[in-house]
Amino acid sequence: MQAGIWIILIAYFALMLGIGYYAYRKSTSDSEQYLLGGRNLPPAVAALSAGASDMSGWLLLGLPGALYASGLVEAWIGIGLFLGALVNWVVVAPRLREQTERYDNSLTIPSFLANRFPTQATALRIVSAVIIVIFFAVYTASGLVAGGKLFQSAFDGGYLTGVWVTLGVVLTYTVVGGFLAVSLTDFVQGCIMMLALIVIPIVVLFAGDGGGFDQASNTLAEVDPSFLSLTEGLTFIGFLSAVTWGLGYFGQPHIIVRFMAIKSVAAVATARNIAMVWMGISLIGAVGVGIFGRAYAERNGVSVEDSETIFILLADMLFIPLVTGFLFAALLAAIMSTVSSQLLVSSSSLAEDFYRLFLRKDAGEGEIVTVGRVAVVAVGIVAAFIAADPESQVLGLVANAWAGFGAAFGPLVILSLTWRRMTGAGAVAGLVVGAATVILWISLGWNGEFLGGPGIYEIIPGFIAAFIAIIAVSLMGQEQNEFREVPAE
């Protein structure tokens, strides 16, 4: 490994740790500071933090890998995500920012649900916290898998070494600096990711004998005439399974918690605009990496054993060591931004919704911060063991966890913020039915094959079933109008 790459990576690690120390000095004095940064995130930080924690390693590995293998038809996943994120910022963000503060200053999604539906407060906190910890263990594992693949492919190192190194750096700044450290590092990491996704497609197209878009198109047409088609061979089920990834946004705790931390409701619109520009550029760049990377590999006879490593291979082959180091740092940024966010949300649920609720109801603020730090480490270690299999696919793990959260929390969050007739019993029913449907669908293999035809992405039946369960149980129940009119301060 050339010295230039290590210089950039060491500088990147030092920057992340430095931000963690800064956040430790500024924002870890109590649980609101540690878990939500004091609800004082500037719009740009909130926007890029939400985007970077959302996209993870799949943006630079999973999505380009799918496009490399199957063609432009896989871009429907990105289109669905973009539309889902936009609706999430418009519908959920301002309401969640206002209501979580007005409902007893809720610091976590489970505590908000408990305050919103007091008749089922304990059940909601327990069930939602269990779902968060289970699915985030899997989701976090996907990020560690990406870290392992980076070290294995780019550094000729051991896969497990990459998993543990990635986890170690993330744990350090997350444990020390809490939510502010995670958000500030996300902002920096989001900038690095976007720049990398602009640079690589342009260089692949035009550097050396690239020949530009026309030559790339001709090369791909020889591989498969339908490679650059958005619709060729696309079934209705396949289309739905791709675009309905966007439904998952409404139920991702590590994303929507950023809405709770924005400094004001008025700042949400600015954050939304920044977030959508960042997301649009990044998704287009990821599509370009996969598509143009395939053209480059075909034209130059490059062997790509694992399509999810195309970003790593291009970065290593086409750039001088200092730039390669920057691009590898971008991949680490994508991985670490999501892993840190997921670890913090998991730990906050364990600290606030288990420890404070059942073990130490009178625990002080300092004690809760300490418990949160211990929980970050515990969840991270569990995720590392899940990620131990080097054959794991990043996109597959992300898809399962994304669907689990989207189905369990998506309908619940939307209806709790917008429908006054919703009851606590309906909320519990939605959580259980959504999560159970996703788990059952995956267990039966119906996401791979359904009734002799193509599989249906598990978020579709899970989201629909949860929506129906919430409405049906709420309308049948005796509880009335748990939507409390809490006056704004």
From TrEMBL:
Membrane topology: Multi-pass membrane protein
GO CC annotation terms, alphabetical: plasma membrane
Known catalytic reactions: L-proline(in) + Na(+)(in) = L-proline(out) + Na(+)(out)
Gene Ontology molecular functions: L-proline transmembrane transporter activity; proline:sodium symporter activity; sodium ion binding
Gene3D superfamilies: Sodium/glucose cotransporter
UniProt keyword terms in alphabetical order: Amino-acid transport, Cell inner membrane, Cell membrane, Ion transport, Membrane, Sodium, Sodium transport, Symport, Transmembrane, Transmembrane helix, Transport
Residue stretches spanning the membrane: 6-24, 45-69, 75-93, 126-147, 159-180, 187-207, 227-250, 271-297, 309-335, 368-388, 394-417, 424-444, 456-475
Cross-referenced Pfam families: SSF
A GO BP annotation: proline transport
Main location: membrane
UniProt-listed InterPro entries: Na/Glc_symporter_sf, Na/Pro_symporter, Na/solute_symporter, Na/solute_symporter_CS, Sodium:Solute_Symporter
Record's subcellular location: Cell inner membrane; Cell membrane
Domain of life: Bacteria
Family recorded in the similarity comment: Belongs to the sodium:solute symporter (SSF) (TC 2.A.21) family.
NCBIfam families linked: Na_Pro_sym (TIGR02121), sss (TIGR00813)
Known role: Catalyzes the sodium-dependent uptake of extracellular L-proline.
Identification of the protein by name: Sodium/proline symporter
Species assigned in the record: Roseivivax halodurans JCM 10272
